[in-house]
Amino acid sequence: MDPIEALAGGTMEVRLAAAPREVDAAQALRFRVFYTEGGAQASAETAALERDSDAFDAVCDHLLVIDRSRGDDPRDNIVGTYRLMRREHAEKVGRFYTAAEYDISRILALPGPILELGRSCTDPAYRTRSTMQLLWQGIAAYVFAHDIGMMFGCASMGGTDPEALALELSYLHHFHRAPEDFRPRALPHLYTEMNRREKEAVSPKTALNALPPLIKGYLRLGGFVGDGAVVDDQFNTTDVCVMVKTDLVTDKYFRHYDRTARG
For the chain, does the N or the C end have fewer beta carbons within 10 angstroms? Predict the structure, then answer.
């Protein structure tokens, strides 16, 4: 992924992991964010290793934000990460991660390359606009390098009480539900109703402000959500399935890389 290697700003850069030790450092960052900070329930092995890892990590690409001012050791300088999983990656392990929570058969039926986004996190000291811009610049470069037509994945809201998230879930249901031809649906045994408030009772501005930055970012890129939420007790979150059709994206990073790709 040569296009990503050139993306830098000051002491910061974004690129794909180039060595196993960098993937290991990304997994350590994920553990700190998801388990130590976020309160996810760790198995004995996960707690002992202090790594968030699964079978998908070995076949995916791992996007990294690196602060070179923190030295050369990945354990110190990797401050953000995103896991990128294309159709050919999923074929190696038999499925996409999202398929454990959603019926994504309509997405799988779409022609052309698709990309699952997952395991996004940043170090608490780097939760800034500039860090997110770097991550999205990296994703934009990756999308254009691989001619991705659809991006999707599970995005999380903190907490496992859907009623406490009624405003946010209802807003997503009424204002951002995906077209039926590619709309995923939460698996029957996991399905949690998102339509918890009448549309007229939902203030879009209030609801949008209450959403996590990551989900707001997807919506700004023209994103949609699937049918039904999923409560993830292990990670102490409530998940929604988010999709972004890249031909609808108007964000400046995607426009920039489109111009670059066209010369």
Answer: C
What's the whole-number average pLDDT of the chain? 90
Angle 39-205-236 from CA coordinates, rounded to 5°? 10
Measure the CA–CA gap between 163 and 160, rounded to whole angstroms: 9
> Residue 101: how many CB atoms within 10 A of its CB?
22
Structural domains of the chain, count: 1
pLDDT in tens, 91-134: 999 999 999 999 999 999 999 999 999 999 999 999 888 888 88
pTM of the model: 0.90
C-alpha dihedral sign at 13, 19, 20, 21: negative
The domain of 146 spans 2-262
Nearest-angstrom CA–CA distance, 242 and 153: 6
Report the CATH number that the domain containing residue 249 is assigned in CATH: 3.40.630.30
Condensed to tens digits (0 to 9), the pLDDT of residues 65-85 reads 999 999 999 999 999 999 999
The neighbouring-strand residues paired with 116 are 85, 152
**Number of residues that make up the chain:** 263
